[in-house]
Design goal:
The complex is a heterodimer of chains A (221) and B (219). With 221 residues, chain A is mainly α. Chain A has nine helices and no strands. With 219 residues, chain B is mainly α. Chain B has a single domain, classed as MetI-like fold, CATH 1.10.3720.10. Chain B has nine helices and no strands. The chains are: A mainly alpha (221), B mainly alpha (219).
Chain lengths: 221, 219
């Protein structure tokens, strides 16, 4: 068995720009999912009753359906319904956001639920409005408690962006496929790319753990 | 836009077979990944630093690479290393098992660590051996705490099996994508695929919630 990594080295720039796109897609997805997911999660807890039914349906559906299915449906089937053709990158962003927001919403709900009811009552007794209680008492504690779960969301997002290769988003995974197809060196290319993913994912998850360890005391009550 | 849903009925046999393979793959993977996870967790907890180091490296590696890449990697690398041609199903099974074993190992480790040390010490003080204490005292209690997390891993695994479609295992996603390419009935087939996954996955997700309510650890 011979290893020949020249194919990887020759096309490193091509792969590196794919990595750039992976990171861009991950960052955008994480930001959008945090915003949308928090809105959905808050809507589920504090929203009017009629709103909870569709929200619960949405969250549970996303937990039941693979992200690949959402991705493929948004890219191939949605244009037929709406007539709007999304480019692969935007389709991936939309699909991943729809999928991951549901998980964020569950995390937000669990985080808020973990702050004891006595705290809300105490805030209300002190004359705060409900919005004030949420903003000043509940969320600051809940956010810190949510941090480890947000960390796993970041890691899941980076891993899920690789699935976008299926709809030909030219990110790292797709470019690895291309290079391996052209060079007939799939083993070396995929091994190298796998190590690159690991080198990004491992420090990211560790960093979030370290941050959490340092500020977790602020979430205690 | 004209829709022709009859295509779904026309190919219902193929889709049903895809569903069967998806379910079979989920079950087989879990059957491998539970013992695999236990072995990795016990290795990690063992006193031998080399053994626990190997386990830690394996677990961290397989948890921190995208599954779809792992599937490709297994598909290309396995035949080169072993010089045996595996069927796509076996390749997908192996890739999924590596991934899920790593997750399960962390689940089991957390479960075992959550049983207070005093319990092992008490068992040893009563004259049990380390192995006996582990088997009779720690593991039965840990198993109960681990159950809800295993259940949600199961649901994730069920969804992740769709990724093996990239190496042409005849699972539901692959079958549906093939039919789409043959018939050009994109909207109908993709919607049918989404609905089938939903119908199968939704009760599982709900069941996980119930298991959490009943067995979940409350502080």
């Amino acid at each position: 068995m011979d290893f020949d990594f020249t194919a990887v080295l020759d096309s490193w720039q091509y792969l590196a720009s794919g990595l750039g796109l992976t990171i861009l897609l991950s960052v955008l997805t994480v930001i959008l999912s945090l915003v949308c997911g928090t809105a959905v999660g808050l809507g589920r807890i504090y929203g009017p009753r009629w709103l909870t039914v569709p929200i619960v349906f949405y969250i549970d559906s996303m937990r039941a359906v693979p992200v690949l299915v959402v991705l493929v449906w948004i890219y191939f089937a949605l244009p037929l319904v709406t007539g709007v053709n999304l480019p692969p990158f935007w389709a991936a962003l939309v699909a991943l956001t729809i999928h991951i927001s549901a998980y964020v919403a569950e995390i937000v709900r669990a985080g808020i639920g973990s702050v004891r009811a006595g705290q809300t009552q105490a805030g209300l007794v002190l004359g705060m409005s409900e919005a004030q209680v949420v903003r000043k008492i509940i969320l600051p504690q809940a956010l810190i408690r949510m941090l480890p779960s947000i960390g796993s969301i970041v890691s899941i997002t980076i891993k899920d962006t690789a699935i976008a290769a299926v709809i030909a988003v030219p990110e790292l995974m797709k470019r690895a496929e291309t290079v391996s197809g052209q060079s007939f060196r799939p083993m070396e290319v995929f091994t190298a790319v796998m190590i690159v993913y690991f080198l990004i994912l491992f420090p990211t998850t560790r960093l979030i753990d370290v941050v959490y360890k340092n500020i977790s005391y602020r979430g205690r009550s | 836009m004209n829709l022709d849903w009859s295509v779904v009925w026309q190919y219902s046999g193929a889709l049903a077979q895809g569903v069967l393979i998806t379910i079979l793959l989920t079950i087989c993977t879990m059957l491998i990944a539970i013992p695999g996870g236990i072995v990795l967790a016990l290795m990690r907890l063992s006193g031998n630093r080399i053994v626990s180091g190997i386990s830690a490296c394996l677990v961290e590696f397989f948890r921190n690479v995208p599954l779809i890449l792992l599937i490709y990697w297994t598909f290309y690398v396995l035949p080169v290393f072993t010089e045996i041609t595996f069927s796509p199903f076996a390749t997908g099974l192996l890739a999924l098992s590596l991934n899920v074993s790593a997750y399960n190992s962390e689940t089991f480790r957390a479960g075992i660590n959550s049983i207070r040390k005093g319990q092992t010490e008490a068992a040893i003080a009563l004259g049990m051996s380390h192995t006996e204490a582990m088997l009779k005292i720690v593991l039965p209690q840990a198993a109960r705490r681990v159950l809800p997390i295993l259940a949600s891993t199961w649901v994730s695994l069920f969804k992740d099996t769709s990724l093996v479609s990239v190496i042409a295992v005849g699972d539901l996603a692959h079958t549906a994508l093939e039919i789409r390419a043959q018939t050009f009935r994109v909207l109908e087939i993709l919607t049918a695929m989404a609905v089938i996954y939903w119908v199968l996955g939704y009760p599982q997700a709900k069941l996980v919630d119930r298991i959490y309510k009943k067995w979940g650890v409350k502080e």
